[in-house]
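2024-03-11 09:14:02 DEBUG pipeline.ingest accepted 1 chain
2024-03-11 09:14:02 DEBUG pipeline.ingest length=436
2024-03-11 09:14:03 DEBUG pipeline.predict start
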Amino acid sequence: MKKAYVWTMVAAMALVSACGNNGGNGGNSAEPAASTAPSPAANADAGGAAAEELQPEEGASLLVWESKEERPFVEAIAKEFTEKYGVQVKFEELGAGDQVNKLINDGPAGLGADVVLFPHDNLGKAVSAGLVLPNDYYEEETKAASSEIALNAVTYDGMLYGYPRSVETYALFYNKKLVPTPPKTFEEVEAFAKTYNDPKANKFAIMWEVGNLYFNYPFLSTGGYIYGDNGQNKEDIGLNNEGAVQGMTYYGSLKNKLLPLNSGDITYDIKKGLFMNGTLAMDINGPWTTAEYRNAGLDFGVAPLPSINGQPASSFSGVKAWYVNSFSKYPNAARLFAHFTSTKEAQLKNFEMTGALPANKEAANDPSVQSNEIVKGFLEQFNQSTPMPSIPEMGNVWSPVGAALSDVWNEGKDAKTALDNAVQQIKDANNGAAPK
């Protein structure tokens, strides 16, 4: 499941993440920074006023962590930032998914970056460890500019922490030679499969990783949910309510209708190979596959997922955002940089240079973004997505639900029984009970 947290696509469609080298910053303080920003009250009219009013500390310099693929954008935007504010910015490569774990040790030791960037599902861990400052001074501007889904993702326990930069989710890839018009409903997928499927010839209407909760959340989302209160309430588990059970029951029925294979026989590589060979008509996948499909010479499109049981299919989504290290010696300069690199203009520049999909509403609707058919398909799906819960207890969900999916798909077990068992395991884990 870790793979699903880190998303990449290449060139103009890239949603970037990666691994990189790390390093230290001797300029950071070993004590958490106080909230030294001027009062945000003066920014009621927003409109960029905050950028003029907040001033960097005298002699400030910044260290920024980001992945190798983002280096061109970060170095370009850092140059603009230095020219405007006179603050030098040093860039060090570190994959987004690795930053919180490294900051746990490097932050208190005064070695961490002043500004970090990581996927939102790591936010609970970061906040619980006291690693990041709230987005306080630019709160109103950030809320006005960013999509609601992105804002929910970078908010923890009612407090806004992140400066949203980019969004990511999976959607429906379709071979235009086989499926000229993408299906709107799973019923349409079923109808197509009746005339197209030929398992002996490896011909399948659609594939997805049926054993992976990440890609099967759409079935549970038709009335169900992981945790309540926008994924923040570990006491409210919605995985075995009526809507979730109905969705899981329908999911189980699709083995005979669409994919007469066990979950272990439907892997990322198998799907990719069949789609590239032209025998798989549709693939539910993420943007990291775009470059390979394009390089294979396929004529394909990307569309939102087909509806399930008459309801929109909500995919899991991720939001990458900038955060200010609470141990930074220069928290105001760090706030300035996090804001400067997440404006509409900065996100459009990032999209142009790396393909990262904007979290800023105006940037996402810009013609340069909307004119790209592949990008537009992912953004349309993002608009009906659900951010993965960021609380630490999300770690207790993957295995029990994965086992339930396997029981229903491979063994034909009752959906309610499987989900009830999963929920009990999650509750036990959340309450610290030893596994039985």
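2024-03-11 09:14:41 DEBUG pipeline.report Residues 1-29, 39-51 have pLDDT under 50 and may be disordered.
2024-03-11 09:14:41 DEBUG pipeline.predict end
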